[in-house]
Structures are given as C-alpha cells and as structure tokens.
Task: structure prediction
Amino acid sequence: MEDAATERLCVHKSITVAMRIALITTVKHNPGDDFVRDGIKYLLKKLWPERTIQFENIHKHAPITARYGFERVRKCDRLDRLLPVRITRDRILEADLVIQCGAPVYWCHEQVKAHCCDNEWYEPLITRRLARNRKAHLLNIAGGSCQSYHSEGSEVCERCLHYIQRLFDAARVTTLRDDLAQVILRRANATAPVLPCPSLFAVDEYHIESASGEFVVLNFMELAGHYSFGQTIDTEKWKHVFMRFYSAIRHQVDVVFACHSLAEVELARSIDRDAKTFYSTHPADYIKLYARAQYGIVNRLHAAYALASLGKPSLVIGNDSRARMADSIVSERVHVNDVTVDALVDRCVKLANSAPHFGDIIRRTKRKALADYMDSLAVVA
Result:
C-alpha cells in the first residue's frame, strides 16, 4: 500500500502545470504583428526553458476576444461592456502573465483627434480585467511611437502623457523599440531601454534558416506607410519614382514583391501587371520567402526585421517614426519625400556589396539583444 501511495505521489509531482500567458496582439490581421508576437514567445521560452507555457492570443482591436468562446467576434465593444467580466472564462483573469506585444503605444495626432489614451484595449483589458487578477504582471514589450518621421515628441498632449505614465506604472517591465518612444516616455517622467523589436527572433521561433540570395525583395505602400499624419506626401511622385526604379532593376535582377496585405498585391500589379508577388495568411511563409532574398527595399518595418534576422540587409523607406526601428538593426532608412531613382539604384549596388558581410553584424546584434531582453525580463523570471 505504501509503495502504491508513493508511486501516486511521484506521478502527481511530475505533472507540470502550464504557465498561462495572455498576449495582447492582433490575430489574423498583420504579418508584422505575428512576427513580433512569435519573437516574444521565443524570448519567453528562453527565459523559462523548463516550463510548459500556454499562450493565449487576444485581438487588441476586439477586447471581447479575451473571453473564451468569443475568439471570432469583432466590433462588439458594447457587448463586452454589458457582460459581467466573470460571467465567462477569461484569458486575462486566468493569466499568470499579460504581455502587450510590440506595437505603437505612444501616439498623439490632434489634427485628426487620434490619441493613444483613447485606444480600445487598455481600459477593458488592463483597468477592467487585469486589476482583478492579483497574481499576474503586465509586461509592455517593444512599445513604440507612431508620430511623423521627423517628430521630436513635443506635440504629445498632456492627456496622452498622463496615459503613458499610467501604462508605465501598470507594467512590471517596459521595453521600447525606437528612440522617439524613449523621448516621449521621458516627457511622462519615466524611462525604459530601447531594444531591437522582438520580431528579430521570429525566425528562431519558426526554426527557419537563411538561404542563398535568389532575388531582391520589394514592398510598396501608397504612402510608404499607413497614414500621412498631416505630412505633405506626394503619392503620385512616390509611385512614379518607385516605378522608374523598378523598371531600372527588373532586367538586372530577379524581383519579388512581398505583399503584407491584399491591397499591396493590387498596388504591385498596378506597377507591373506581370510582377512576381507573394502573399500568404501564414506568417512563417514570409520568413521562408525572406530567407531566399539577397536584400530588400521595403516600406514594411517588419520586412526589414525579418530580412535582418536572416542576415539580409535592407533599406527602409518610411514616412513616420516607426522607421526609426531600423536603427537598432543597422539598417538604413530614408523619408519617402527624399527618395530619388538614382539614389535607389545606387543603394541596390551598395546593399548587394554589403550582403555577404551583414550576417556577422546582425549575429552580434542578436546576441546582445537576447542578453538585454533576458536582463529586462529577469525581474519576472
């Protein structure tokens, strides 16, 4: 009898209770967000190599997805507010850790009445839910800015600064992904380190290795970003410059458009109806594509990060402060208004020449970034 009881006790002790981590992210929305989230997963598995972790995704644009059974629901903020929190099982209430997964979290654009303090996820997920979960910490990982390209942060209003301080105080750990985010956070009387975006580690989470460069990868956005933020951007001029650049290189090298949305597929075909385009609903497919590239000329920041993670250099053409993320991976960037055809063609030559040496540079960058993330996360280890 004693032997049987001892055996049952040993079996009971061997059972591993999974750590529940709720990820505030997007779901089936944007490949770049997937890269960030999955890079964070890699870092957490490095932090807790012996633990079993159960990850739960919450679509931040639909906070009701924190509730089990509501994963496919969108645009039901009123329903979420009307339902008592504890009437359903909830990912935040059951979490051991809650993570804001690398996104713009500091922005303020009075001209279009867009303020980070009015975002759709903080109040329902953090104020309403996390405050009831006394065991879970909030981590704000890779928080970024989203201002105009040349912003110095002075335009961020007091209401947004108050929110930014609230978010900082609510988080056990904060890391940032661009230097303007740090400037803005300091205006809110706080500070945090700027580290490369965790999307740099998505390739490691997917177990994808770099391959020989077969083509040049491009992506094209009408504004070279998502919004103009009141900046004067001549979209016709930008498209004309890009078309002439594309025409100049397409007969010299193989070119593939990596389209992070269906809209970008149509834009690529408006440049060349016979263009080689790539689109997928599976984030790892993009990494596999970037693994075969030689270098990139991109608007998408997470295309630059995916390329860099595989040892491929790129040039980022942007129109807002998110482009500053490129600084952390030793990639060059330029404002869309400053782009010329000759400069782009010349940049291609330089990127081709630097490609064989870029891998060594990024390996050092990744080693340091991994160590810095482990140091930052150590307080919750």
Remarks:
- The mean pLDDT is 94.
- The radius of gyration is 22 Å.
- The chain has twelve helices and 14 strands.
- The longest strand covers residues 137-145.
